[in-house]
Amino acid sequence: MTATLKAIHPLGFHWQTQDPFLFCAHHQDAYPEGKPDLSPVSGLSGRQIGQDFSGKDGWSMYHGSKVPGFPAHPHKGFETVTIVEKGLVDHSDSLGAAGRFGNGDVQWMTAGRGVMHSEMFPLLEEKKKNELHLFQIWLNLPQAKKQVPAHFKMMWKEDIPVTTLSDADGKQSQFKLIAGDLGELQALEAAPDSYAAKPENEVAIWLINAEAGAVFTLPAVGEGTNRSLFFYAGDRIEIAGTPVSAKHSVDLEGQSSISVKNGAKPGHFLYLQGKPIREKVVQHGPFVMNSNQEIQDAVYEFQRTQFGGWPWSSHEHTHPRERGRFAIHADGREEIK
Fold first, then answer.
1. DSSP state of 58
2. Which end of the chain, N or C, is more open, meaning fewer C-beta atoms within 10 Å of its C-beta?
3. 187: DSSP letter
4. What is the pTM of this model?
5. Sequence-ordered list of residues with C-beta below 8 angstroms from that of 147, at least 6 positions apart, any chain
6. DSSP state, 300?
7. Burial of 276 by CB count in 10 Å (0-12 exposed, 13-18 middle, 19+ buried)?
8. In this predicted structure, what is the pLDDT of residue 3?
9. Which of 203, 236, 206 is nearest to 18 (CA)?
10. Closest to 119 (Cα-Cα) out of 191, 62, 70
């Protein structure tokens, strides 16, 4: 079946996705220089602290009161894949795990039966801007996996497969594989209980950077597999004979491979692919279950247990300035990069 376009959507802050994905949040902030306490040197005047999504001066504090980011909050019943292309993220969670990652790293977290974590954006540079660019993808879990133990896996930039392909005119496109295979190149293993851990689910998460005028191909997929291409920076592309401008996503229909011709500027894309789970989705904020009763149970459980409690001194916990990239897992295993 020839691949065609099913739908085109404008891109905002939360990007519309297809099953098995729930949505993608795109953060791109030009933070100023940081102070010794990792907060913005410019101060916070004029911002609605605790709920700042304003984009004032090119950046937001989000829910942070001093350091930008997302203080302790719960998740249950799905997975987050956090791709940090620029900047650093300080992770702390209710299992006692922690880490600092970014500048090309990816964290894959299966929330499963429940975890509370914080994601803060420390402004470590005092003499230059602190740019942040990240994608956080919410990937659903099937009902059979919604009660698995919470777990996170680090995918360090040094280990993530990247390949560069050339078209007939020698124009190049770079593919960074967070999940899924491209030809003989295989992504790192997903978290063990992830929906992406089974190859038959055909989950793919790729970042694609194309030179001006380059043509690249999205490969064929199995019957029923959903595919979406998010064109977040550039000018125009042509796909299935249709011109599409930047800051739009394209949902594809059909199984066959499809070529994308980039326009006159470098193009930057996120590609998501996967077999749909085809189960009822009931979402209440950070809880994603299959029924209203399960949502009520999840809220009650969190109120009762806080998913293990919060072992850190602050809900906006940040790590010492001098720490580099690292991860400490709930079992005590430590990774230092």
1. G
2. N
3. P
4. 0.97
5. 112, 113
6. H
7. middle
8. 80
9. 203
10. 70
Question: Quick one: pLDDT at residue 253?
Answer: 94
Provide the β-strand partners of residue 287: 76, 284
Q: Which two tokens stand for residue 216?
A: 């690249």
Tokens encoding 275? 């077999």
pLDDT tens, position by position, 74-133: 999 999 999 999 999 999 999 999 999 999 999 999 999 999 999 999 999 999 999 999
**Dihedral pair phi/psi, residue 326, rounded to 5°:** -160, 165
Which two structure tokens, joined as six digits, stand for 77?
């019943």
Q: Is the preceding peptide bond at 20 cis, omega within 30 degrees of 0?
A: yes
Position 45: which residue type?
S
CA 165, CA 280: separation in Å to the nearest integer? 39
C-alpha 257/C-alpha 230 separation (Å) is 17
At a CB cut-off of 8 Å and minimum separation 6, what does 234 contact?
A: 210, 246, 262, 263, 265, 266, 267, 268
- Give, in order, the Cα–Cα distances in Å from 188 to each of 141, 160, 207, 312, 335: 19, 7, 14, 31, 16
How far apart are alpha carbons 336 and 69 in whole angstroms? Answer: 23
What spatial distance separates the first Cα and last Cα of the chain, rounded to whole Å? 46
- Decide if pLDDT at 13 tops 70: yes
Cα separation, 214 vs 263, in Å, equals 8
Residue 87 · residue 119 · CB < 8 Å: no
The chain-wide mean pLDDT, for the chain, equals 97
Indicate the helix (H) or strand (E) that contains 305.
helix 292-305
Reported as a pLDDT band with limits 50, 70 and 90, residue 1 is low
**Tokens representing residue 89 in the block:** 């993220």
